[in-house]
Amino acid sequence: MVKLSDGSLLATFPEEQKLLHYSYGIWHSFLDVSFSPMDLAEIDDVTVVVCGHRNGGSGQSNGIVGFVSRQGQLLKTIYQKDDHTVIQISTAIAVNKKLGTIAICNGDRVAILFLNGEICSVYKGSFPLRFVVFGDSQRHEFKPAAICCHRNGNFLISDYQDGYVHVIDPQGLFKGILTCSQGTGNGLPGLISIDDFGYLWVEDIQHKCIKTFTFSFYENYFSR
Questions:
Q1: Is the pLDDT at 13 greater than 90, yes or no?
Q2: Where are the beta strands (DSSP E) in 116-199?
Q3: d(CA 70, CA 96)
Q4: Per-residue pLDDT tens over the stretch 78-125
């Protein structure tokens, strides 16, 4: 669900392959699509981007990115580029409105797209806090659960595998990692959002609660 600039709400209904619109106390059907929409984000006053998937052949699921007008018209969809699958498993999406990039949680990675659908970069997780004295460092699995965009332009990604919140810039370059205080533990972050006052809200799946955080100058933490 996303709050649009006019104050109304737009929500996904994956089971019915619909987008729903809420305004003046009433929910109504906004758009029927040919895939299961999972998440959406507002690009500007006229366009919304939605990510989802539909079942392909042999039981495979194909990820789809759709661009929708505020009047409820599907403008275009992106799922392949030059016979290459752009998105495979799309579960969450966020938009940097100033620089025009779209970040999509795509299975074990985050895909960064330009507004025209071209791939900007792919972020596969970064773990600069792991040190090994002897031997090689084992790479831990990255499982992005949700994503949002900070007002400074950086994307924040909750990783429910290791309990971190990753910070990447609008082009997908690693900036740092956010954690809870040592006393409360990291938990397993799920849904994540930033409100109009700049507070970070994180769903903690492990402790079955919602945590709220304020920011420090995290751009300087754990830099490469």
A1: yes
A2: 119-123, 144-149, 155-159, 164-168, 174-178, 189-194
A3: 18
A4: 875 555 566 777 889 999 988 889 999 988 899 999 988 888 999 998
Three-state secondary structure string covering 38-93: EEEEECCCCEEEEEEEEECHHHCEEEEEEEEECCCCEEEEECEECCEECCCCEEEE
Distance of CA 169 to the CA centre of its chain: 13
How far are the Cα atoms of 19, 23, 123 from residue 194, in angstroms, in the given order? Answer: 23, 22, 21
Tell me how long the chain is. Answer: 224
Token pair belonging to 131 = 């040190």
Q: How far is CA 13 from the centre of its chain?
A: 17
Closest CA to 165 of 91, 43, 150, 183: 150
- Residue 203: its pLDDT value, please? 87
Which residues are CB-contacts of 167 (< 8 A; sequence separation ≥ 6)?
Answer: 154, 155, 156, 157, 174, 175, 176, 177, 178, 218, 219
For the chain, the C-alpha Rg in angstroms (whole number) is 18
Question: 42 with 83: CB under 8 angstroms?
Answer: no
Is residue 129 within 8 A of residue 116, CB to CB? The reply is: no
Q: What percent of the chain has pLDDT over 90?
A: 42
